[in-house]
Design goal:
Layout lengths: L2 H11 L32 E9 L4 E7 L4 E8 L5 H17 L8 E4 L11 E6 L3 E2 H7 L4 H20 L2 E2 L8 E3 L5 E3 L6 E2 L24 H5 L7 H16 L9 H12 L4 H7 L3 H9 L8 H6 L2 H7 L8 H10 L10 H5 L35 H14 L3
Antiparallel strand pairs: 1-2, 2-3, 3-5, 4-5, 6-8, 7-10, 8-9
Helix pairs in contact: 2-14, 4-6, 6-12
């Protein structure tokens, strides 16, 4: 694809709204929707503009770096009441520091250094600011086939680096994929990421717990074999995202894990006996699947082109669907993780041929097992010990 075509593509995506609608910027540190004030104890080099989002794990605000007038996103985390939040914080700092130079992974500019350990009660991650995310783009835009190709290529390009490091992201979903007005895409939120035990045979990797990834984007093996999965779960999540890019709606919006599996089988069909033998180790899980009504695999092309959300968006052009997109989708959403495409194979798929360039798809060295020693055994998590590790990680970090 020529540079002119890519430039035109980038100009199209934000035509309907040059930026997602945003409230008026506030000159002082903002408050949430309630009356409580959100205080950011950060360097005077930054001016907080407004809160962008808030969850159980932290609060993200838009700020301006005054000396350079650069917009940044500052994530405020108060992890020291719960050991699992400490683990998420450590993972995020370590992995974003390693991956920060990749163009499809959000950049961590800095982590604010605390004045002392005694006053260390909050963590501030200063990150690259992106005005939107893929969830917002799917909701508010009509996406051409070229947009879908370009977004998907960038996701796989970022994942190639992540997987080459022996890391599973474990929480890929549209809201964790940031997008700017130039169609540049960046993967974020590494708080649930873990080392892939396949790359560390003989090492004591902690059991991979079932609570990973927002349910709608979870691979079936997570729900059927909670402690045994690989980088293939990220590929499944990308398949779910591709489906969503095509029909403008989550394909498997399960209300619980049983409903989630039922929705998956309604689309993919009931797994064969050989697939059950290969993938499902639990006798109880096999009995459950065999008790469900037998389903035949849907015709993906027909399902997508007739989907009401796609017809609403594309109207008379809803049937204009690239068969290569369907072919790739069918190779990503495969029940048996060993038969799913790897990220490297997906990048070579004809659907991404306009963008694929092996010389511009970097890899990195595997994360040393020692770097994730804190994640090896979770029976006796000590918040104070984890706090010291986070403090040392921040103080030793180089910009």
């Amino acid at each position: 694809m020529t540079s002119t075509t890519i430039a035109n593509l980038k100009n199209q995506i934000f035509q309907p709204v040059s930026q997602p609608p945003q409230p008026q910027a506030q000159p002082q540190p903002p408050s949430s929707s309630t009356s409580r004030k959100v205080v950011f104890n950060i360097s005077q080099n930054f001016k907080v503009v407004k809160v962008l989002g808030e969850g159980a794990y932290g609060i993200v605000a838009l700020a301006v770096h005054i000396p350079t007038q650069t917009k940044v996103a500052i994530k405020k985390i108060e992890p020291f009441e719960r050991p699992l939040f400490c683990l998420r914080t450590l993972r995020e700092i370590k992995l974003l520091s390693k991956f920060s130079n990749h163009e499809n992974i959000v950049r961590l500019y800095d982590v604010q250094k605390p004045s002392s350990y005694a006053q260390f009660n909050e963590v501030y991650l200063i990150q690259e600011y992106m005005p939107s995310d893929l969830h917002n783009i799917i909701q508010t835009h009509v996406l051409s086939d070229q947009h879908v190709q370009f977004f998907l290529y960038q996701i796989f390009k970022g994942l190639k680096l992540i997987h080459s490091a022996g890391v599973i992201h474990r929480d890929l979903k549209p809201s964790n994929i940031l997008v700017n007005e130039h169609c540049d895409l960046k993967i974020c939120d590494f708080g649930l990421a873990r080392l892939d035990s396949v790359n560390y045979k003989g090492e004591k990797i902690s059991l991979l717990t079932e609570y990973v990834a927002t349910r709608w984007y979870r691979a079936p093996e997570i729900m059927l074999n909670a402690s045994d999965y690989s980088t293939a779960i990220d590929v499944w999540s990308v398949g779910c995202i591709l489906f969503e890019l095509l029909i403008y709606k989550a394909i498997f919006p399960g209300s619980d894990y049983i409903n989630q599996l039922k929705l998956i089988f309604e689309v993919l069909g009931t797994p064969s006996e050989s697939e059950l033998q290969e993938v499902v180790k639990s006798k109880r899980a096999k009995i459950f699947i065999q008790s469900l009504p037998t389903r035949q695999k849907m015709n993906f092309h027909e399902f997508i082109t007739c989907h009401p959300f796609r017809r609403l968006k594309h109207q008379e052009r809803a049937a204009d669907l690239n068969p290569l997109a369907v072919d790739l989708l069918e190779k990503l959403l495969v029940f048996d993780p060993n038969k799913r495409l790897t990220v490297k194979q997906a990048l070579k798929h004809p659907y991404l041929a306009s963008y694929h360039d092996p010389l511009d798809e970097p890899v990195t060295s595997a994360v040393p097992i020692e770097e994730f020693a804190f994640d090896v055994e979770k029976k006796d998590l000590d918040v104070e010990d984890l706090k010291k590790q986070i403090f040392n990680q921040i103080m030793q970090r180089k910009k």
